[in-house]
Protein: VOC family protein
Amino acid sequence: MIDHLGFSVSDYARSLAFYKAVLAPLGYGLVMEVTPEMTGKDARHAGFGKGKPDFWIGTGAEATRNGLHVALQAPDRAAVDAFYQAALAAGARDNGPPGLRSHYHPDYYGAFVIDPDGHNIEAVCHAPG
Structure:
């Protein structure tokens, strides 16, 4: 149903490096950047995805703090673990280590981190272990 999502960040270079590191274990990479020269506005945007950019960060609006939750689908539990380790190494704060969250459903395996702007970013796998 959702084609893409995006949100503002307070420090573009820091967040670009952060998301390059934490999205790689999930198979996401930087697909494109939109520069101020391209839009005629003083804003930068980075689109991540698997072929098509569907996860965007950018500048130009005040960053939303402490209210955004994004859950990213992981292909398996090992990718959730790798996401979590990459996020911590890139400067994220722990918000729930990898593990089963059976209160959601028996195979819900997720990990939660807080990104540099205070957003709660999750990687989740719904497949049986």
About this structure: The beta strands are 5-8, 29-34, 45-49, 53-58, 69-73, 93-94, 99-100, 109-114, 120-125. The chain has a mean pLDDT of 91. The CA atoms of residues 7 and 57 lie 5 Å apart. Residues 5-125 form a domain with the 2,3-Dihydroxybiphenyl 1,2-Dioxygenase; domain 1 fold (CATH 3.10.180.10).
